[in-house]
Write a structure and sequence with these properties.
The protein is mainly alpha-helical. The chain folds into two domains: about 60 residues; about 60 residues, no CATH class. It has four helices and no strands. Helix 1 packs antiparallel against helix 2 and helix 3 packs across helix 4. It starts with 6 loop residues before the first helix and ends in an 11-residue tail after the last helix.
């Protein structure tokens, strides 16, 4: 019997097991307690174990799922989405939530190969307005809305 390994699924399974092990190690100093009197480490350890088990099951399934190679890396989406996250973190304290959200949505929209500027702009305005409404108005978070220049 030959193994026909699905490499992308196997790589993701290894990633899940590694993340679960890392989370378990971080929670190792917290007391677990019992089901009746849960300690601060009860839920983090439980979730870490669930993630590791899911990764192991996915890994076993990948061993017999049929051959699939790793796809080529799509650099444009990877770079633009990462840049939009960094841009939001850099802009928020100075430009405010509205302008930061608008800029980030437009930047992330160009990660798509079939981006339509008009649709992207409408989405950016709608999401910026929703962000201000939700985080500042409804939740009352002390986030500046306008630029602090």
């Amino acid at each position: 019997m030959t193994l026909k390994i699905n490499i992308p699924d196997l790589a993701f399974a290894a990633f899940l097991v590694a993340i679960g092990a890392f989370a378990f190690a971080l929670a190792s100093e917290l007391t677990v307690g019992t089901a009746a009197a849960m300690g601060p480490g009860y839920v983090p350890r439980g979730l870490a174990i669930v993630v590791m088990i899911y990764g192991a099951v996915l890994g076993l399934r990948a061993m017999f799922a049929g051959h699939a190679a790793l796809p080529d890396i799509a650099w444009r989406p990877l770079i633009l989405i990462s840049a939009s996250v960094a841009l939001f973190a850099a802009m928020l304290p100075y430009a405010g939530l509205a302008l930061s959200s608008l800029t980030v949505v437009i930047c992330a929209g160009f990660a798509s190969y079939d981006v339509r500027l008009h649709e992207n702009a409408v989405l950016a305005v709608a999401l910026a307005a929703f962000s201000v409404l939700l985080f500042v108005t409804v939740l009352g978070l002390p986030i500046p809305v306008r630029p602090q220049w």
